[in-house]
Design brief:
There is one protein chain. The protein has about 325 residues and is α/β, with parallel strands linked by helices. It has three domains: about 100 residues, Periplasmic binding protein-like II (D-Maltodextrin-Binding Protein, domain 2), CATH 3.40.190.10; about 80 residues, 3-Layer(aba) Sandwich (D-Maltodextrin-Binding Protein, domain 2); about 120 residues, ACT domain (Alpha-Beta Plaits). Strands 1, 2, 3, 4, 5 and 11 form a six-stranded mixed sheet that branches. Strand 1, helix 1 and strand 2 form a beta-alpha-beta unit. About 0% of the residues have low confidence. It catalyses: prephenate + H(+) = 3-phenylpyruvate + CO2 + H2O. Pathway: Amino-acid biosynthesis; L-phenylalanine biosynthesis; phenylpyruvate from prephenate: step 1/1. Pfam families: ACT, PDT. Keywords: Amino-acid biosynthesis, Aromatic amino acid biosynthesis, Lyase, Phenylalanine biosynthesis.
Length: about 325
């Protein structure tokens, strides 16, 4: 599949959780540089990132956070364990769902519902209220959940799918707007292997993954102080098990600002001194384009002046009163 033509000259490939019509596909449509290039449909996050690592694709769009369910653990764990990846952009997609079935099926006929696990989690209150005895059949994507209803011997009676799915597949809509939160939004990121950091725009975000040095009282507070004392706001803080033993966790962190902002750079230096492992995932423009504001004591000039003052002391310059 392609943004325009798969045979376009000098085309490059972008991977996404397909098939056509998924929310990830909708996010990829927001990537300007992907227009007119080849779009490769994959089945899961691991396959998408493997495409990037092996060079099959120049980039992959993957879901990383939902406003209802929080961080997408599969994405967070993959980014923590696959080296050489950078986030270069983020994109927001409003999330809505419909319940579909084969033509002729009624709501009373539904017993088994196919749905991607994240989509199911965002609709379970509606489903529990109207179909209290239903069973959930996990699907690889929201579109494939609907597509499998048209197989010769489908296991599911209905599927949770994105609006407009009936235009792509011969299914009937049993119910609309079944999401539990009408304001739900999913955040997607573009992941590449390029180490080139996008220029700062003043409305930026930086993502890192950090491990605590020890499991002792105050360790988490000490990590957070690296940001608080430099006026750096955190927009996401989630823990994920490292997996080597019980009680060992890494923290997935999104912070407001760009690595070229003095306050952010200083915070990352403090973090590196504190933590045995800091994984820098990238600095990139915020999807909402909201400018990051800080008080004057955290402006770049304040950090620069402080360094100049210290440099002067070391070099023997007289300290001004």
């Amino acid at each position: 599949m392609s943004g325009s033509s798969a045979s376009a000259p000098h085309a490059v490939t972008y991977s996404y959780l397909g098939p056509v019509g998924t929310f990830t596909w909708a996010a990829l449509r927001q990537v300007p540089e992907a227009a007119g290039q080849v779009w490769r449909s994959v089945n899961n996050v691991g396959e998408a990132l493997d495409d990037v690592v092996t060079g099959r694709s120049i980039g992959a769009v993957i879901a990383i956070e939902n406003s209802v369910e929080g961080g997408v653990s599969a994405t967070q764990d993959a980014l923590a364990n696959i080296p050489g990846l950078r986030i270069t952009g983020e994109y927001l997609v409003p999330v809505d769902f419909v319940l579909v079935a084969r033509p002729g099926t009624t709501l009373a006929d539904v017993r088994v519902i196919a749905a991607h696990p994240v989509a199911y989690a965002q609709c379970h209150l509606w489903l529990d209220a109207r179909l209290p005895e239903h069973e959930h059949l996990p699907a690889t994507s929201n579109v494939s959940a609907a597509a499998q209803l048209l197989a010769d011997n489908p296991i599911a009676d209905a599927a949770v799918a994105p609006p407009g799915i009936e235009k792509e597949h011969a299914v009937a809509v049993l119910a609309e707007h079944i999401g539990d939160n009408p304001n739900a939004v999913t955040r997607f990121v573009l992941v590449t292997s390029s180490t080139t950091i996008p220029p700062r725009t003043g409305a930026d975000k930086t993502s890192v993954i950090v491990e605590l040095p020890t499991d002792q009282p105050g360790a988490l507070v000490e990590m957070l102080e690296q940001f608080a004392t430099r006026g750096v706001n955190l927009s996401l803080l989630e823990s994920r098990p490292i997996g080597d033993e019980l009680g060992r966790y890494r923290f997935v962190i999104d912070l407001d600002g760009h690595v070229l902002d003095e306050r952010v750079a200083d915070a990352l230096l403090g973090l590196k001194r504190f933590s045995p492992k800091v994984l820098f995932l990238g600095s990139y423009p915020r999807a909402d384009k909201v400018a990051v504001t800080v008080t004057s004591r955290y402006d770049d000039e304040v950090f620069i002046d402080a360094r100049d003052w210290l440099r002067g002391l070391i070099s023997g310059e007289p300290d001004e009163p």
